Amino acid sequence: MRAAELLRAAADDYGAAGHESGPIHPWGPNWAPPDLSDPELRRDIAAHVRLAQAAETRAVERLEQALEKLQGA
Fold first, then answer.
1. Alpha-carbon distance 17 to 48, whole Å?
2. Which residue has the higher pLDDT, 11 or 72?
3. CA angle at residue 14 from 51 to 8, to 5 degrees?
4. What's this model's pTM, rounded to 2 decimal places?
5. What is the pLDDT of residue 54?
6. Residue-wise pLDDT tens digits, 25-68
7. What are phi and psi of 37, to 5 degrees?
8. CA-CA distance, 68 to 1, in Å (whole number)?
């Protein structure tokens, strides 16, 4: 991949991370704290966190690859 493609892919990964973290963050005036005593809800939140983390990890890796390509140019 060229540096520009890596940068676009990293941006997409950050978008995916934001999409995954959206359901677990307090957005809007009607947000209420989740009932963390519900194990199913905790599993759902954990799944969103893991997916967001994986997307951010991919984004960082792609940014590092793009930087290496740019430094070598």
1. 9
2. 11
3. 130
4. 0.82
5. 97
6. 766 677 778 888 999 999 999 999 999 999 999 999 999 999 99
7. -80, -10
8. 12
Tokens 């676009």 appear where? 8
Eight-class DSSP state of 70: H
The pLDDT value recorded for residue 28 is 63
- Per-residue tokens: 37: 């005593």
Give 55-59 contacts, CB < 8 A, sequence gap 24+: 55/13, 55/14, 55/16, 55/17, 55/20, 56/13, 56/14, 56/17, 58/9, 58/10, 58/13, 59/10, 59/11, 59/13, 59/14, 59/17
One DSSP character per residue, 28-59 reads: STT-----TT-HHHHHHHHHHHHHHHHHHHHH
